[in-house]
Amino acid sequence: MTMLEKRSQLGRRAFLRLAAGASATAALVACAPPTAAPAEDAAEAADMEQIEIGFAWWTGGEQANALFEEAVDRFEAAFPNIHVVRDSVPYGEFHTKILTGYAGGDAPDCHGVPWGTVWSMAHKGVLLDMNGLVEGDPEIDWEGMWPAVTEGCYYPPDTIISLPRESFGLRLYFYNKTIYGDVGVDTPDVAMDAGDWNSGNWTWDLWREQAGQLTQFDENGRRTIMGSNQSADYWNLHTVIPSFGHSMFNEDVTHFNLDAEAVVAWLETLPVMINEERSLGKPDETADFDWASSGKQAIIRSSTWSIPNYRASWEDIDWDFVPPPRGTHGHSNFVGNDYHSINGTGTANVDAAWELLKFINSPGEDLWWAQNFFGAPFRKENVEPWANSLNEILPRNGWKYMLDMTNTATPWTPVPFQEELNTIHSNEIGQAILGERPVQEVVDSITSKIDAMIADFE
Question: What are the φ and ψ backbone dihedral angles of 126, each rounded to 5 degrees?
Answer without folding.
Answer: -100, -10
